[in-house]
Write a structure and sequence with these properties.
The protein has 627 residues and is α+β, with helices and mostly antiparallel strands. Helix content is 39%, strand content 19%. The chain has 19 helices and 22 strands. The strands form five sheets. The chain has an eight-stranded mixed β-sheet, with no helix packed on it. A hairpin with a 2-residue loop joins β16 and β17. α3 crosses α5 and α4 packs across α5. The N terminus is likely disordered. Bound molecules: ligand BES and zinc ion. Ligand BES binds next to β19 and α4.
Length: 627
């Protein structure tokens, strides 16, 4: 009897763990009570910088006597109601637990025996980590306020009480009231007509993880790009954005050719104000993107290829926990390059892959071993800390290794069937590994022997047998950089007329590497800053309007004390809030006492304009307000 009970317990727990991987970054208990649908109803109150309204959760009861436990952060809970039939709601009790620095506070709601719906009346706090409220001055138009959300990794809980784990998928509907003349958009189907009456309804019928719920409100215009693609931006930016993004439909078609149908209906892009803390965010049906990608020559659209790719890798097949983040980002980085190759040719792909590999190698030098592992352990840490080049570039390199070993035809087929097999599911690294074994490795044991899968997934560093993406175009650029550094040619003699942004980036990185290693600085160049001056006079990097080139140049300017670029650096940090740019710049400044003082002076003024997520990072870099 005892044994049977024990056996039953083991069977039950292993069944449950098959569908519910342990997520250390959520207090929720989806194995006992699972949220299936969320109805949202809000007033967007710009004067108070709050969302005020309710979230009604439809739940599935798996263990009848368990309470519902939700994730929250800085939410003000006014009232909780429960209902058995959806018609009559009765006031219920709730307990808001203590708040953890990373995880926020659990909201425990005892459930009457038959309850299937729970309504929480609440409001957000003005400092909510997943919201940024912009004053009109922080927008392009300068006339209207702006609100946008950023839920990944665990910020949805700061604006919606829910089971904030990527292993839990929900459908959702929303009713949003805004000031008149502002437009609300969400990662969902828009059910309202074109009228800007301040009353908007949305519906997302496909089950998605909480980190993909998204909302933005502002003075937005729409322009169509293709049959199912379009762009939203402020009126000031819309024309530029539409020109820059005119290849979007082509990219969707190319991705469908590779990996099967686009399953989300429309693919639109929202261009945000410059304080958006990321390059892009793959909110379903509506990618959120930084305006710093609008270079004017489409040279930074790899970002769109990336966010679009997430419609397969990430949104369709989702990482079950933040340990499995590489399943989202490594796959997506690999897909991004395949899309670029399909639309712009192999040479572009080679350049992007080579830049990626360089970044990876550079970052690995300063990472702890434990952070170099694809299947990373993030227990007790902020999951945003896992966002290094490891999940992105090491993950992509692993897939490239598989592609090169098994051949494109076989590997493409494998990926396509992987996306179909796990469509609308959240999966763990173990599930991927099983699927890989059964559908690729075991079918070709001789080839499988060439890929050290366990080393790729569970060990630090880059396996010795990893591919080394290289670019013939870059080899030529490098040659020019060296000729110039050795004073064998003048800048005017370099064949730069047709260089792309990627080639310029490679040029600057090559120059930087040489300037950084004192032994190799040629004697004719008496100082690094002087060399930079010569380059600047020839190529005007300080006033480059390309954000990636400007960023690379400003980073070098700090390293090499190139003072003429300092005003531009200050302007850059005061107007752009993209974490990938500002964090390395502040870090570089913080390396010397004078630099640190300048960083603090700039940050004091810039901080109120940055997104809460960027503020958390930069506070940490500068030990704010420590001194
Ligand atoms: N999903 C990520 C953004 C993200 C990751 C937000 C982790 C929060 C936590 C998005 O797809 C992404 O990777 N964006 C990149 C751009 C891309 C071209 C590499 C970014 O923002 O830099
Ligand atoms: Zn991504």
């Amino acid at each position: 009897m005892m044994y049977r009970l024990l056996f039953a317990i083991i069977v039950v727990t292993s069944l449950v763990s098959a569908v519910t991987a342990q997520d250390y970054h959520s207090y929720s208990n989806p194995a006992a009570v699972r949220v299936r649908h969320v109805d949202l109803d809000w007033d967007v109150v710009f004067e108070q910088k709050i969302l005020k309204g309710s979230a009604t959760l439809t739940i599935e009861r798996i263990s009848p006597n368990e309470p519902l436990i939700l994730d929250t952060r800085d939410l003000k809970i006014d009232k909780v109601e429960t209902s058995a039939d959806g018609a009559r709601y009765e006031v219920g009790t709730f307990k808001l637990g203590e708040s953890d620095k990373f995880l926020g506070a659990p909201l425990t709601i005892p459930l009457p025996p038959k309850a299937t719906r729970v309504r929480i009346h609440y409001s957000t706090s003005p400092g909510a980590s997943g919201l940024q409220w912009l004053d009109p001055a922080q927008t392009a138009g300068k006339k209207s306020p702006f609100l946008f959300t950023q839920s990944e990794a665990i910020h949805a809980r700061s604006w919606i009480p829910l089971q904030d784990s990527p292993g839990v998928r929900v459908t959702y509907a929303a009713h949003v009231r805004t000031p008149r003349n502002l437009l609300a958009v969400m990662s969902a189907e828009n059910l309202s007509g074109p009228a800007r009456d301040g009353d908007y309804r949305f519906r997302m019928d496909q089950p998605i993880p909480s980190y993909l719920i998204a909302l933005a409100v502002g003075d937005l215009q729409f322009q169509s790009l293709g049959p199912r693609t379009g762009v939203y931006a402020e009126p000031h930016t819309i024309a530029l954005a539409a020109r820059e993004l005119s290849d979007t439909e082509k990219m969707v078609v190319a991705t469908e050719h590779l990996y099967g149908p686009y399953r989300w209906g429309r693919y639109d892009i929202l261009i945000l104000p410059p304080s958006f803390p990321y390059g892009g965010m793959e909110n379903p049906r509506l990618t959120f993107a930084t305006p710093t990608m609008l270079a004017g020559d489409k040279s930074l659209v790899s970002l769109i290829a990336h966010e679009l790719a997430h419609s397969w890798s990430g949104n369709l097949v989702t990482n079950a926990t933040w340990r499995d983040f590489w399943l989202n980002e490594g796959f997506t980085t690999y897909l991004e390059r395949r899309i670029l190759e399909a639309v712009y040719g192999r040479s572009r792909e080679e350049m992007e892959a080579a830049l990626g590999l360089r970044d990876l190698k550079e970052e690995i030098v300063s990472l702890d071993d434990r952070d170099e592992i694809l299947h990373i352990d993030l227990k007790g840490r902020d999951p945003d800390d896992g966002s290094t080049d490891i999940p992105y570039e090491k993950g992509a390199l692993f897939l490239r290794h598989l592609e090169e070993t098994f051949g494109r035809a076989r590997f493409d087929q494998f990926l396509k069937s992987y996306f179909n097999h796990f469509a609308f599911q959240s999966i763990t690294t173990d599930q991927f590994e099983d699927y890989l074994k059964q559908n690729l490795l075991n079918k070709n044991p001789a080839l499988a022997a060439k890929v050290p899968v366990d080393e790729w997934i569970n060990k630090p560093g880059i396996p010795a047998s990893a591919p080394t993406p290289s670019s013939p175009a870059f080899a030529k650029v490098q040659e020019q950089a060296h000729l110039w550094l050795e004073s064998k040619i003048k800048p005017a003699q370099m064949p730069v007329a047709k260089w792309t942004t990627q080639e310029w980036l490679h040029f600057l990185q090559t120059v930087q590497t040489v300037l950084r290693s004192p032994g190799s600085v040629p004697e004719s160049l008496d100082s690094a800053a002087q060399s930079m001056g010569a380059l600047d006079r020839a190529f005007h990097f300080t006033r480059s309007g390309n954000s990636e080139i400007a960023f690379q140049w400003l980073l070098m300017s700090i390293r090499n004390r190139y003072e003429p670029a300092y005003p531009r650096l200050e302007e850059f940090l005061m107007t752009i809030g993209r974490r990938k740019f500002i964090k390395p710049l502040y870090e570089e400044l913080a390396k010397t006492p004078e630099g640190k003082a300048r960083a603090l002076a700039i940050y004091r003024r810039a901080r109120p304009t940055y997104h809460p997520i960027a503020v958390t990072s930069i506070d940490d870099v500068l030990k704010w307000p420590g001194e």
